[in-house]
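Here is one chain, start to finish.
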Amino acid sequence: METMEKGYEEGFVLTVHDGIAEIRIGRHAECVSCGACGAARQAVVEARNGIGAQPGDHVRFTLPEHSVVLGSLIVFAVPLVLALACGVLGAWLDGGGVVASGTLGGLVGAAIGLAAGGLVVRWFDRRAAAQQPQIVEILR
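Its structure:
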């Protein structure tokens, strides 16, 4: 079985609840153009807190290397591609092979594709929870 490469990040614990810590981290150069998290200069990450870090602690935590890029792709691209593909297919089927005349079929197909994309995102979210970042060290 292939092991997943992990990187390490540092940040400050904001809150701790039910074994999960919210950690404030500074944004990196690759984050500037993304804007997915909505934070202007800092982002907040949730990590498993198996070592008992408390609010205010400076911590190091693991972060799967591919998680941000893959997560962005799944969350944004998959529903869009499925909505587009199902919309075109629905329009084609409704229009008797002519996409331009199948407006209602296209709308229904796009809605079905978007719903299917939402299910894929939900499945990915559950799977990704097992790969959640984890605090590995409290720094002084």
